[in-house]
Amino acid sequence: MYQILKQIVKTGIKTETPPQADGSMRLVEQRLQQAILEAFGGALAIRQVDAGSCNGCELEIHAVNNAYYNIEGLGIKFVASPRHADLLLVTGPVSRHMELALKRTYDATPEPKLVVAIGDCACDGGIFGSGDADGSGENYATCGKVSNVIPVDVVVSGCPPAPTAILQGILTAISARK
Amino acid sequence: MPIKHPNLKLSRLTDALPAWAGDIAVDDLRAVCRQVHDGGGRLVALWGSDVRQCGGGFKLHVVLINETGLVCLNVPLHAEHPNYPDISDIFPAANRMQRAAYDLLGICAQEGHDHRKWLRHGAWRSGSFPLRKDFDAAASRTVEADDYPFVQVEGQGVHEIPVGPVHAGIIEPGHFRFSIIGERVLRLEERLGYVHKGIEKRFERMSLQQGAKLAGRVSGDSTVAYAWAYAMAAEGIAKVTPSNNALWMRALLLERERVANHLGDLGYLGNDVALSFGFAQFWILKEQVLRNNATLFGHRYLMDAIVPGGVAVHLSIEGKHIIEQECDMLEQQVRILRGIYDEHAGVQDRFIGTGVVTPKLAAQLGLCGLAGRASAQAWDARVQFACAPYDKLDVQMATYRNGDVAARVIVRFDELFESLRLQREILARLVSDDAAPVLLERLPANGFGIGMVEGWRGEVMVAIHTDAQGGLARVHPHDPSWQNWPLLEHAIIDNIVPDFPLINKSFNLSYTGQDL
Ligand code: SF4
């Protein structure tokens, strides 16, 4: 125990100031009323769904939990069920094999809900190519960008986007339209 | 020459690795496999290709490994009846690879007992095969329901818990079906393939350099290993050798990838046994490595740093100092943390004896990589088949016999320290040359090459076949997770369900790497 405490004291506080919201990441008009945003009360529950990523984006989503970005310190936490979630954080091009699971997760998330698409693949199919919801895309196995499958509020580009960009995307989604 | 058979003529593939290839008739396949197996060898990868446009039928490719090197057997198959004998009784790891080869190409392992689909769920029709050159994506679309016959366990008090594909956490998707009695797991059956995103088909339209980017995104956590294996395969076909400096740089990047992943896993393994202190500490260290990567090489995970022909990054003298300091810092910090893990009774209680894979089972089923070394499977490509520059580095392999979570943790710690040592050695020999890298733009026609690199998880292999114009006719990336996923099904038996996340994490296998 002594060793643990000593190490904690020595490590100190690493957390950095979070980024500001950025309206240019917004895909659609703010769908939520200011009043509802306030109802989230600064405490936001996120459900992460990997809908077909290369797992690179997941690495950075893990990283937003580390002490430098300390997402929990902002009152945002990752939850285990869509039923407890306010926001879905979706990565990948959506593989056809995940299409149904993603739709179901979306449906199981109570209103009001937000969706943030993380990574180039989630924004436009990225290196795996566009797929289209109707199957006319370049790749037989994917539906392409997340908004081909469920409504998306905010997109964060990058391959993978850095943790600050991910945080910024989340904060943009929950900030009121200016 | 690794194997001899009267009907097998082998030719050397690349200078980078002791690797050979040769054609063999379908009737001789099993005899050669049996011979390699009986000599202590393993199956590395199995895939197929469509060569009907070149006047052939299909081809099956089987890569085997023994202590002298790699052998790729090319087996011509009939255009109308592309069948070959099942080899999963010799190499159990072949089971899922054979099923995937059927789903994607329609080549069929006969006499096997398991013909269930593997990578295909409902995204394309049964009877149509995406990797055939005449595949028609639009016509193959289907909305047919995806039914999969799981093995049922019966008995009094037995019930099933289905989990996934979407998991409770930041994890890739897959389906796990536990048959349990009380809390004890009687059986686990995995169903993967959810993140199948047509990677192998994508390669066919890409240039060599675009393909390098895609190879680096087969499994993002192993981007360096894939990019290197891909480059090695391409360089083997083109018969070019990258500069010494580029090779040293590749090894530096590969060891940095190993360190970053081990740090992350060690943090999560602490977290999974309620020592969140471990997560906080290790992830601070990991973040520092990632930030140095971003500063020095322009990408936190080192994507696109390795390209066919060389590397796309430089390291200045100051950059070397930054890495040296980072190595010193990590050495000191990780020693403290290791001491804390070792002495923490709660942690050790959960680690020791949990999720055991015995050396015997590991050998039988072909467990490889980090998890294999924790179960006494002494294979490390950096040691046995040391491609340059590892041939000058004398890598110390870490092996343990216990095969439990604790052993997989120890292997991670040992390999982490070894990687720090290797980085220092590499830095001492890396000379900055400012010569622009000679990038490889095109490959010779009708070539075949393979590259294999010991990534942090295990051996990553990439095979490239070129067409008559030198384009990418077929690229097959192979993740060590193919070999190791089936062992997880065994590791959980007789453990309790709540220990599954811990056991799973101790393997930390790739979903995307095997779903392709
Ligand atoms: S955006 Fe990049 S890191 Fe993210 S899933 Fe796509 S390829 Fe991987």
UniProtKB/TrEMBL annotation, chain A:
Which stretches make up the NADH:ubiquinone oxidoreductase-like 20kDa subunit domain?
A: 54-171
| Species annotation | Sideroxyarcus emersonii
Family of this protein = Belongs to the complex I 20 kDa subunit family.
Protein name (Swiss-Prot/TrEMBL): Formate hydrogenlyase subunit 7
Tell me the GO molecular function terms. Answer: 4 iron, 4 sulfur cluster binding; metal ion binding
Q: Which UniProt keyword terms apply here?
A: 4Fe-4S, Iron, Iron-sulfur, Metal-binding
Recorded hits in InterPro entries, A to Z, give:
Complex_I_20kDa-like (IPR052375), NADH_UbQ_OxRdtase-like_20kDa (IPR006137)
Q: Which cofactor does it need?
A: [4Fe-4S] cluster
TrEMBL record, chain B:
Offer one Pfam family short name for this entry: Complex1_49kDa
Q: Please provide the record's keywords in A-Z order.
A: NAD, Oxidoreductase
Domain named NADH:ubiquinone oxidoreductase 30kDa subunit: which ranges?
Answer: 24-139
Ranges for the NADH-quinone oxidoreductase subunit D domain?
Answer: 282-432
User: InterPro entries this protein is in?
Assistant: ComplexI_49kDa-like, NADH_Q_OxRdtase_suD, NADH_quin_OxRdtase_su_C/D-like, NADH_UbQ_OxRdtase_30kDa_su, NiFe-Hase_large
The GO terms describing molecular function are:
NAD binding; NADH dehydrogenase (ubiquinone) activity; oxidoreductase activity, acting on NAD(P)H; quinone binding
Is Cytoplasm a UniProt keyword of this protein? no
- Regions crossing the membrane: none
Q: Which domain of life is it from?
A: Bacteria
Is Oxidoreductase among this UniProt entry's keywords? yes
Provide the protein name.
Answer: Formate hydrogenlyase subunit 5
Q: Which organism is it from?
A: Sideroxyarcus emersonii
